[in-house]
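Might I ask for a little of your time on a matter of protein folding? What I wish to show you is a protein chain and, alongside it, a tokenised description of its three-dimensional fold. I should value your view on which stretches of the chain appear to form regular backbone elements. You will find the record immediately after this paragraph:
***
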Amino acid sequence: MDVLIRGGQVIDGSGGGPIKADLLISGERIERIGPLPSELSEKVQTVIDATNLIVAPGFIDAHGHTGYELLVDPFAESKVAQGITTEISGNCGFSPGPLLIEPLQRERDEWCSRYGLEVRWRKIGEFLDILESQGIGYNYATLVGHGVIRADVVGYEARPPKGDELNRMRYLLEEALEQGAIGMSSGLFYPPGSYSKIDELISLCQVLRKFDGVYATHMRDEGDKLIESVREAIETARSSGVPLQISHHKATRKRNWGKVKRTLSMIEEANARGVDVSCDQYPYTAGATSLKMLIPKWAHEGGDERLLRRLSEPEALGKIRSYLEDLYPMKDDWHTVMISEVVCEQLKRFEGKRLDEVADQLNTSPFDALIYLLNQDKARTSMITFLMCEDDVIEVMRFSRTMFGTDGSVKGFGGKLKLGKPHPRCFGTFPRILGRYVRQNGVLTLPEAIRRMTSFPAEKFRLKERGLIRRGYFADIVIFDPDRIIDVGTYENPQ
């Protein structure tokens, strides 16, 4: 007998509890739940006193982006430190494979070279084998990215697949699923996924049915066309017969705040018609993505190299300027964009600054500051955008079919992965929900919050014998003080 967790308040992940119970763990499994006879207690190697603490299933990050980072920090410290024992990665159309074309392989090689890594892979199965061989500090599952598969076959052209291309995409998807991927994600906001139409997505999702896979989507639009985008996602799932996960559900920009009431009703109605639809969220009013995504989608065709060339072409640059001046008509509007991470060392001084502040330091306009950063950093800059409202965060959180995700990769408290000022969700998503929204604001009860963090995502993503405290289940366990747990990171000091 290995570990005894004694005297804790057990919330088992089902939505019930808490109950006072001991937990006996043998190897990787839960051996016994309840009072432990003294003769067994004496044989236990390790005893953890959980008096006045909550004992729960380990949290499942339903929407993560960790990949290459595990080659640098296999312990996944920023995830495990907030109670995450399983991550669902490969979201928003991006995944660690298959990397079959030169641009994707070059991106992999540049990333690995930055950290002195010599390891290389092409297929998802090869990447998972590397992780299995080296060992990692939590459980890792990945979706296969539609954007990656599309790039492999169609490239970065803004057109539908032609000839045999769709069949080749279906083959790559099936191969990835056979190698261990648990579903497919799309990033319809990002090129090249944004160039796809619904018939392409339905065809690919039909491949998932054979593997009982999940379709997770970063929809085309989370602002002005939010309702239309939810409708497309539901229709994709209905027509293909697969479970749907709507990623980081929200409404961006003030004119769209409140629309989540309608979209959550649409999700409820779809479930009533037999379509399995759920969503995830992070508990913040700011999002994060690449700075280049401020540039209109037409300018991304052909990939980053072509985008950067367009930024030096007067006609293209003029169209981009007109687009962004409509989006950000006042200088203060640019204050909603914060530079979170750059690659170029000479630009580090701008990390943590808003775009209007960067413009002041450069003695130029916010638009010209944006173009300067993209050119100097080769379109690799990351940003945080402040575009959501607290009422919507609470509305989505209260919805019974919402689970939670960091929408981030493993980051460093120190060491090689302590870079820039990443979104604090990477460190504090789950403590923030339990501290701010459960204990302080009463948005959810503690048992319900834990159900959404554990058994609900485990069921959705077909994670067997995880997400509940049950005899014989894997001993993915988190212990915390419900009176003290809270996030402490800020946008200025996320770690």
